[in-house]
Specification:
The chain is built from twelve helices and twelve strands. With 341 residues, the chain is α/β, with parallel strands linked by helices.
Length: 341
């Protein structure tokens, strides 16, 4: 009979995993360095950043605060199908963590873009606490599951909605992150915003793809402040996107700003192409706040100094979510706990 871990035992194991990720062994360092061979976007810098973000998340204070809100285990273990995205390294790890923390079993369908890091880290967790070996399994095809958490595009979400409609589910679609500027931001804050825009090459749903600015806003200081990020154009895939979008704007005579590695264009949409930042002017914060609330289902997170109705992140912090900063604002742990009732 498999050992049933207490909430405290889980926390202790997660803390140890966090400490390991802060100081990776040679094998993990090698995986981080070689990830780009399987996915050109997974540079050593991006992959190391993703590992470090998880390490920071797995601290004793946050784990106890987070898991203390829940019972820590279901009355009966459920099999949870997880369909993971692969846009940035380890992007689905939080879903796995939620399943493990809630005492359920994760049936993990890895993205073909990210197949090595997650198994290595979970095997390390089993070394720390062998009982976790019974709580996850890597699968190619989902079957015999009690619930599903699936992350994909707006197109794949329609398929997920149909295919998994008969079981409890969380189906995630495309969302984008935005920044709201008021024009008084310092160069340091705007430089930090550069991380929100450029980290992971802008491929994540927590990357800022659009900024709202006061009417008549001048982008000069913004461009000066993000100059340090120009080396992003050395990445061939990013530069290909930059060149392609630039040529489209030029051919179509689309008005835009260009600093040599980022194109800034006025547009009402949230989702901008890679290497493009959309902007939209506003006349009053109150009116903008109301508009954002009405479009909340399209927004992953907001970076701003302004006090808004929706939660905001400080500049440079969009890629540093806490354990309770759930994707799409859906309480994954609450969902999982509800399955056992």
């Amino acid at each position: 009979m498999s050992k049933i871990l207490t909430s405290k035992q889980r926390i202790v194991a997660f803390i140890q995993l966090g400490k390991f990720l802060k100081n990776p062994d040679e094998q993990l360092k090698q995986l981080i360095a070689s990830a780009k061979q399987y996915n050109a976007w997974f540079t050593p810098e991006s992959t190391a950043q993703a590992v470090e973000a998880i390490a920071k998340m797995l601290n004793e204070s946050d784990l106890e605060k987070w898991m203390g809100q829940y019972h820590g285990k279901s009355d009966k273990q459920k099999a949870i199908g997880l369909i993971l995205a692969g846009n940035i390294p380890l992007v689905g790890f939080h879903d796995i963590l939620c399943v493990l923390a809630s005492g359920n079993k994760a049936l993990i369908k890895l993205s073909s873009q990210d197949k090595l890091l997650t198994p290595y880290i979970l095997n390390k967790l089993v070394e720390i606490e062998p009982a976790f070996a019974e709580q996850f399994e890597f699968i190619e095809r989902l079957q015999n599951f009690d619930a599903v958490i699936a992350t994909g595009s707006n197109n794949t979400s329609r398929y997920f909605d149909y295919y998994f409609s008969k079981v409890p589910n969380i189906i995630r679609k495309n969302r984008n992150s935005i920044a709201v500027l008021n024009g008084t931001e310092s160069k340091q804050e705007l430089h930090a915003l550069g991380h929100d825009i450029f980290d992971y090459f802008g491929l994540g749903c927590r990357n800022v793809s659009k900024v709202f600015v006061p009417k008549g806003y001048k982008f000069d200081t913004f461009f000066e402040s993000i100059e340090d990020f120009k080396s992003i154009a050395d990445h061939h895939k990013y530069n290909n996107n930059y060149d392609y979008n630039k040529s489209i704007f030029l051919v179509n005579l689309d008005k835009h700003l260009d600093n040599g590695f980022l194109l800034v264009k006025e547009d009402e949409r949230f989702a901008s192409p890679l290497a493009v930042l959309y902007y939209e002017e506003y006349e009053s914060i109150t009116a903008l706040d109301k508009k954002l609330v009405e479009q909340a289902d399209q927004i992953q997170c907001i970076v701003s100094n302004e006090s808004l109705s929706m939660d905001t992140f400080a500049f440079g912090q969009s890629q540093c979510p806490a354990l309770w900063d759930y994707a799409d604002g859906v309480d994954t742990m609450g969902f999982l706990e509800g399955l056992g009732r």
